[in-house]
């Protein structure tokens, strides 16, 4: 079963897993970088629903369960037959002493620590714990969370893959999918290379790829995205702003890939912004819409922590971009000449 865009004007594949072109990333609702009050979190989710967004993503890591728990309240209000929900597996939350809490970038979190476990038992426990926090079995997609090396090294990745394929993790995902408890399986990661590696090993439906196919990065065009099209594998594009710099522009303190942006990135973003300005188009608008030009990309999911941020995302997502902008970005060598670009205005629902 594959991933498909829900919007009937832009239907690319037929699938029981329907995705609105604009989705909702649930990391901010886990108190990412700052505390959000419960009422504000619910108002933000309501704003997304009212705007026509029907695809929502969350994860146990986001606030050590807080994001999922906030989704649980929203699920009692939303029409779950019209909603598509994904969460992630492979990070099990365990009770711990206060000094062992692993909040990463989240604040005001429950007293939990994260244990990576991609074995059969780990996948099943992660799935069942998510159901308990969501207070619902309304989970359409399960995504292996950060199974790639990341900053933890190649040994970490190799061990995770060994657990997945030799210790039953993939079997657990397959059993859940075959039993109809979920409709799709994939991975939520920050590197396209691990997705390509996973496709070489087994059958996956889609991937949530964060920050790796953007106005600043198009390396997946060489092999990975063509493979996705060939295999009918859908991409959920997270991190369209490369950790912020494509939203803020080349300002002091801008972040790229979760760290202060290096000089060469700042220079390139400055040039991207200048071309966009020449076409009366904000850089953030081009950044949000660009990924959907590729047939493999089914939805883009910026995060939001307030109703106003949701409405801003919708407004820039639906703004019309002149085709000459894309042509100029290519002629200036700022995006690849072979990068497909959007040809029609986007619509959320």
How many helices? The count is 12
Radius of gyration: 19 Å
Judged by helices, strands and strand pairing, the structural class is alpha/beta
What is the CATH homology-level superfamily?
Answer: NADP-dependent oxidoreductase domain
Order of helices and strands: EEEHEHEEEHEHHEHEHEHEEHHEHH
Strand content: 15-25%
| Fraction of residues in helix | 25-40%
Mean pLDDT: 93
Biggest beta sheet summary: 8 strands, parallel
- Strand order in the sheet with the most strands: 3-4-5-8-9-10-11-14
Low-confidence stretches: 6-15
Number of strands: 14
CATH class, please? Alpha Beta
CATH architecture: Alpha-Beta Barrel
* CATH fold call: TIM Barrel
Could you say which overall geometry the principal axes of the C-alpha atoms support?
globular
Description of the structure:
The protein has 349 residues and is of the alpha/beta class. 36% of the residues lie in helices and 16% in strands. The chain contains 12 helices and 14 strands. The strands form 4 sheets. An 8-stranded parallel sheet has the order 3-4-5-8-9-10-11-14. A hairpin with a 2-residue loop joins strand 12 (255-256) and strand 13. The protein is globular. The two termini are 21 Å apart. Mean pLDDT is 93; it is low at 6-15.
Task: Identify the notable features of this structure and list them briefly.
single chain; 349 residues; alpha/beta; TIM Barrel; eight-stranded parallel sheet; two-stranded parallel sheet; 12 helices; 14 strands; 36% helix; NAD(P)_OxRdtase_dom_sf; oxidoreductase activity
């Amino acid at each position: 079963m594959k991933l498909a865009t829900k919007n009937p004007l832009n239907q690319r594949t037929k699938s029981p897993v329907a995705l609105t072109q604009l989705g909702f990333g649930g990391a901010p609702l886990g108190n990412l970088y700052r505390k959000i009050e419960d009422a504000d979190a619910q108002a933000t989710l309501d704003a997304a629903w009212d705007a026509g967004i029907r695809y929502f993503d969350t994860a146990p890591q986001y606030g050590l369960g807080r994001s999922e728990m906030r989704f649980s309240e929203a699920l009692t209000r939303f029409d779950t037959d019209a909603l598509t929900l994904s969460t992630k597996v492979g990070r099990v939350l365990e009770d711990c002493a206060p000094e062992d809490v692993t909040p990463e970038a989240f604040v005001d979190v429950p007293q939990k620590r994260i244990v990576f476990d991609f074995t059969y038992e780990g996948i099943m426990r992660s799935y069942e714990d998510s159901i308990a926090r969501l207070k619902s079995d309304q989970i359409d997609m399960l995504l292996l969370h950060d199974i790639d090396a990341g900053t933890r090294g190649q040994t970490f990745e190799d061990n995770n893959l060994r657990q997945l394929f030799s210790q039953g993790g993939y079997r657990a995902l397959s059993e859940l999918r075959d039993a109809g408890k979920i409709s799709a399986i994939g991975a939520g990661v920050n590197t396209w290379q691990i997705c390509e590696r996973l496709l070489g090993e087994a059958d996956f439906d889609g991937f949530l790829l964060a920050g790796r196919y953007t106005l600043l990065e198009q390396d997946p065009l060489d092999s990975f995205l063509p493979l996705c099209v060939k295999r009918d594998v859908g991409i959920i594009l997270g991190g369209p702003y490369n950790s912020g710099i494509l939203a803020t522009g080349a300002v002091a303190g801008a972040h790229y890939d979760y760290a202060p942006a290096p000089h060469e990135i700042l220079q390139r973003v400055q040039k991207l912004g200048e071309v966009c300005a020449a076409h009366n188009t904000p850089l953030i608008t081009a950044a949000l819409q660009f990924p959907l030009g590729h047939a493999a990309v089914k939805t883009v999911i910026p995060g939001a922590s307030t109703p106003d941020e949701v409405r801003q995302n919708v407004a820039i997502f639906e703004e019309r971009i002149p085709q000459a902008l894309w042509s100029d970005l290519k002629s200036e060598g700022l995006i690849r000449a072979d990068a497909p670009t959007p040809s029609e205005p986007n619509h959320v629902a």
